[in-house]
What does this fold into?
Amino acid sequence: MPKPEATQKPSGAPAGPLGRTAALTRRTVRRAARRAAALTRRYGLAVAFLLAGVLGGLGYSLFTPPTYTATAFVLVVDQGQNGGAGPQAVSFAQAYGRLAPLPETLRHSSIRLPKVASGATREHIQASTSPDTPLVRLTGSGRSGADAAAFANAAADALVRYGTSHRADTGVRVALMSLAAAPGTPTSPNLPLDLAVGTSSGVLLAGLSAAIVSGRRGRGARDASRARAAGTVPSPASAEPVEVGS
It folds into this structure.
């Protein structure tokens, strides 16, 4: 008797449970890939800005040379009839604060300034004053704590000597209130702060980009809807008569 021919399965049909599992896995992977592609098109620019902000803050914190700061204080005392911290002393404190970082004032210092590039000394000394107190705050910055303290103390010493030399003309006395101590830790970079600033910048840019993309997508959808409406709904005047067959 002739043997019955074996029934052949279509080449594209899955072969048993293993084949069905493989097909299901492929469909799942394809769906996940489509969703990932859609999310990338929608949020890719925003995510890129966010990552750029985080990496920028991290890079600044890791690769920026450390900077140390130290602060000295100088007090201006009114030598008039009122004495103490009168309006004249406050006014002169503000004026001395503007003069403190100038090279002409720093020449009066007996404390040696750290070596820096020519004309760069003023970048390492910052002076600030208060509108109510005759106090001058002198902040020095440098690559080491010793340099930062040296800048601040040299500026304070120079201001005291400069004020003393003009005491007869101004009627106020300039006195050293406190010297700067060399700090043990740098002021910057600060990893948590730098990361926070970078992340905030990235979030801001991401939000702006998402708003712009969303606005463009909304306008595109409205234009497409209007175009479809104009193309598929004919006006009564342009509608052609329909012939009815016999």
Remarks:
- Residues 27-63 form one domain.
- The chain is about 55% helix and 15% strand.
